[in-house]
Amino acid sequence: MKVSVQAVAVWGKIAPSHSITAIMITDDQQTIVTGSQEGQICLWDLSSELKISSKEILFGHTASVTCLAKAREFEKQPYVVSATENGEMCVWNVTSGQCIENAKLPYRHTAIYYYHCSFRMTGEGWLLCCGEYQDVLIIDAKTLGVLHTLSSSQSSDWVTCMCIVHSARIQEDSLVAVSVTGVLKVWDLSSSLNTIQERQSVCEKESKSLDCINCQAVRFCTYTERLLLVVSSSCWQVYDYCDFSLLCTEFCKSGQCFAGGEVLAAHRLIIWTEDGHSYIYQLLNSGLSRSIYPADGKVLKETVYPHLLCFTGVRENKSFPFVMGFMNERKEPFYKVLFSGEASGRITLWHVPDVPVSTFDGSPKEIPITATWTLQDNFDKHHSMSKGIIDHLCASKDGIGSAVVSSSVYIPSLDKLVCGCENGKIFVTLGLKTARARLLENISLLKDNLPYKVLNGHSSRVTCLLYPHDKSVRFDPSWLLSGGQDSIVMCWDIFTGGILHQFSLQSGPVTELLRSPEDYKLKDHSIVCCVCSDHSVAILHLQKKVCLLHARKHLFPVKKIKFDPVENLLIVGCEDDSVYIWEIETGTLERHETGETAKAILTSIEDSEYLVADALLPESQESKRSKNAGYKPSSSYKHGMVSYNLTHTEKSSDKV
Questions:
Q1: Phi, psi of 557 (to 5 degrees)
Q2: 487 DSSP assignment
Q3: I want to staple 437 with a disulfide (CB 3.0 to 4.6 A). Which of 98, 127, 234, 445 is the partner?
């Protein structure tokens, strides 16, 4: 019988970090969805008056979120899909916060578009994806399995941006995409349904090289069905969709870079920049004049020119990159909304007028900010918010400030909560009793009756903690390991608080502390592995208090660490897909491989155990087997997805 465990997250006065890397608004304009560099998804309530309030944080990803998109017809199923740097994909129900489906594919997506043709397709539809791979992937929206690829007959390359063209005039759907080299390609979707289902090759029907690089966005004007907007970092251009002739070009100001754009209405555009500015233009002369081909074969004559109507106001003192988008909803409440998310975690909304106009003297008019909000604003709004779980231990003498927790680990067998802080101190206290006293606001119990220890040894931020005995009895139950920004690994006696040994690595901040697998063959088995910020990997023998191996030659960040139990080798896979093979007993680099040879090495030892850290939500063996079998998602991994509610009540005791 499986036991359901409810995970609870409790924050103090400081909101969790949420550096926004992707943002979208759902079709009903009631929810804002943001993805973060930390890997979490945050859901925000959006009222009919365009007021923002954070609702839930969804946990499940292990890497930075690269893009978000809707994953169903929203009126039927309120699903969105998220993708990350390391190939993870999740489908979320934004109403309940549940993870509906997940998968891990060897692709890094940068843009996803949902496509479903109800009278021609069966199933839940497709996710059309582009990113750091050639051409366009077609992924099943229900299973997240790869169905097919839209390939190129020539100039096959990465696609930087794309859009789906719905033409009501000819009742055909197409996909327009622009590659990293500036080649525009058009694939038929409607007429290719049967070909795709039969797994036959589907190539583009049209291709044209555009005079632009670093393309950021491409958009089709559904109002005229004639104009195509292409935005690059240095300029934006308008083309005639019928023959792809150039109609207009507008360059950005010095010091600015365009980041995207959208069609507001017929002959009206909005363009935004990387630093959060946006501009609304009116295209004069309608853009429908017939293209003129000069007799000398020079470039086409431009037939429209832009007139700047409005620009949006921005907050002062901004120093963070922006991700922006535009929502033009034709249902109640009929808002046109420009939205942005910052790396600081701030969301900003602008209500764009239905008919933007300039001032009386013809100069552009400023559109003020309608709403702006952060997670911290939610925390500051509710004054009944409880303090951090160890604030009573690490408060300063004047009672004003407190140490910031930078890493933590809970040891269930001892009921001990270990928190490493930015100032280098490590606090050890009783976990459940402290949490209960904090939640029930039993301040007297916190201050007087709960024992704790303070471990002093690191000179700067504690970056990681590991209690190896909790997962393997071969480690001494008194050992607690900590890694710091000072490039030191400390081995503590958790019962006495004394330092057993100090490993000085001189390799930059320690980023991870990892247990060796169960089949590791060296004697005593008291082996741990640590990864440092300079991409080096060190193997530490805790019993002998020596560093057995310090592998320093990795040029790229470490992505995988495996042990070969037969040959007793350490195999390190890096982000550039190269593999380093180290002989543990001698400490020598035996081989360095790249390309197909490196992949073959990792595949040949697929059954050996990965070196992994203790996670908040550990995987079962069933999940590991399922992942090895073609990345098929497992139910155990799906249940590991966690959503934490951010809505607050007036009294903490009511919440409990």
A1: -55, 145
A2: S
A3: 445
In this structure, the number of other CB atoms found within 10 A of the CB of residue 524 comes to 10
φ/ψ of residue 576, rounded to 5: -85, 15
Here the tokens at position 550 are: 């310090």
Q: Which two tokens stand for residue 606?
A: 């697929």
528 backbone φψ class: left, alpha, beta (φ>0; ψ -120 to 50): beta
Residues of 247-269 as b/e, b for ≥16 C-beta within 10 angstroms? bbebebeeeeebbbbbbbeebbb
Q: How do residues 107-136 score in pLDDT, each as one tens digit?
A: 999 999 999 887 677 778 899 999 999 989
Q: Which CATH superfamily is domain 388-552 in?
A: YVTN repeat-like/Quinoprotein amine dehydrogenase (2.130.10.10)
How far apart CA 477 and CA 561 sit, in angstroms, is 25
Closest CA to 421 of 60, 14, 3: 14
- Name the nearest CA neighbour of 268 among 307, 234, 311: 307
Partnered with residue 271 across adjacent β-strands are: 261, 279
The one-letter code for the residue type at 14 is: I
Q: How many of the other CB atoms lie within 10 Å of CB of 527?
A: 25
User: Does this model's pTM top 0.70?
Assistant: yes
Domain ranges of the chain: 388-552, 557-609
Hey, what are 272's tokens? 């935004």
Task: Work out whether the CA dihedral 284, 289, 291, 292 comes out positive or negative.
Answer: negative
pLDDT digits (tens, 9 = 90+) for 243-299: 888 888 899 888 889 999 999 988 899 999 988 889 999 988 744 444 444 444 444
| Helix, strand, coil abundance in the chain, percent, nearest 5 | 10, 45, 45
